[in-house]
Amino acid sequence: MGGLMKRGAIIWLMMVMPVMLTLAAGREPHLHKVGGTKGWTQNVNYTEWSLHERFYVGDWLYFVFDKHSYTVLEVNKTNYEMCRELNFIKNITKGGRDVFNLTDARPFYFISGGGYCYHGMKLAINVTDFVPAPAPSQAQNASWSSSGSQGEPHALLLILTFSLVTVM
Q: What is the DSSP code string of 40-102?
């Protein structure tokens, strides 16, 4: 019976530790498929699509499109508003399944060249830094930590690990 309990504790620890470490570290980057199931094409309301997404530094945009018809150009705000493809910042068109890393907290603007921008193929998003949920108050945290310090998920992990190891 002791060996079975020990094995169960080890399995539990192996399942819970990666989850706890991920939560303690913050947020994993997210891959946003631009336009959802429709992808990057004409007659899609990308403003409406982007309202249902949250973009954080480190996330990726995934553009899926017909590479023979469309392009993806990063442009400035003025060129976005006027659908001008001249003097673009970056052409991210490679093969019709292209990704773009959101590396900075700022607005990003994308259009498709060849006049397709006028048919709605344009996207404006605002990328922000990820701010984790606030740590519990000292009163709530006091039951978890003898020091009463806030925001110590690693300490909780160590306590849980030590208590499981000593039980085994």
A: S-TT--HHHHHHT--EETT-EEEEE--TTT---EEE-HHHHHHT--TT-SEE--SSSEEEEE-
pTM greater than 0.90 (yes/no): no
Instruction: Write the pLDDT tens digit of every residue in 48-60.
Output: 999 999 999 999 9
**Helices 2-25 + 153-167 axis angle, to 10:** 170
Question: 55-56 and 122-128 as β-strands: parallel, antiparallel, unpaired?
Answer: parallel
| Alpha carbon distance 166, 55 (integer Å) | 43
CB-based contacts of 58: which residues, under 8 Å, 6+ apart? 29, 101, 102, 103, 130
Whole-angstrom distance, CA of residue 42 vs CA of residue 34? 12
Cα of first residue to Cα of last residue in the chain, in angstroms, is: 12
DSSP 152: -
Give CA–CA dist 97/31, Å, rounded.
13
Give mean pLDDT, residues 145-152. 41
Other Cβ atoms closer than 10 A to 54 = 13
- Please name which of 79, 60, 69 lies closest in space to residue 42, comparing C-alpha atoms: 69
